[in-house]
From TrEMBL:
InterPro entries: Aldolase_class_II_sugar_metab, Aldolase_II/adducin_N, Aldolase_II/adducin_N_sf. This is Ribulose-5-phosphate 4-epimerase/fuculose-1-phosphate aldolase. The keyword Metal-binding applies. Keywords: Lyase, Metal-binding.
Amino acid sequence: MPDDMKPIYQVNEYTPDPAVVFDRKVAATYVRYARMMVARGYVQSSLGGMAVRVPHPDHADGICYAKPQGISLEEMEEDDLVITDIPYGRVLHGDRATTVGHQMNREILRLRPDVNCVIHLHHDETIAFLAAGHEEIRSTSLTFSYLMQKPARYLPAHLNVEEDVGPIKTFIQDTNCIIMRRHGFTVLGRTVSEAYHRTNVLVSEVKRNVIVEMLSAVKGTTPEYLSTEDMEWMFKRGDAVVYPTLIRKESH
């Protein structure tokens, strides 16, 4: 069909697709990981969320399980989830609108076919650390680089890629973590588990930065952080250290 004849869809347009079946196993996984993030104190309101891509024969980019607006990850139940397509954000299952942040999630999934889960959180310590005048989160540990596998991308406070997704295409191939000043962070993963682990290691690194800066100020010492060169070396070897079984699986 020529481009000028393709239908124009609106975000959150209710377009139920009988070929899209609600998968209880996917929904249970979603709620399970939502509960784990809540238990760690990452969720404070109905803002933030998670998007999970699932392959579908009728949708080239797959379909996406997402949290609707007005409910938090803390309150989520399986039946609250909606399913959207990825290019347009049409609601294929469920009858509630998604959050504005789902535009960002969908654009990331569209541009990164290797990514199947996006987690976006308004994390207190991350926002506070950057608001205190720190320009970036430095690495104190080996685990951050091995798990994240790409450098974090920092966005200025005035740039809101939830509302305007246009800039995402300029940097998303080179990162698995977007840090948004005054806003929070967005973490990408090939699986829900990987996105969750990357979220945890990022939160841990923020906590370590706070502790290191405080203790160094008290002792009058200079904080010791890993160099950019060391981090780049570890980025390239993350799977070999953390996911050796994944390497073997992809090589077959």
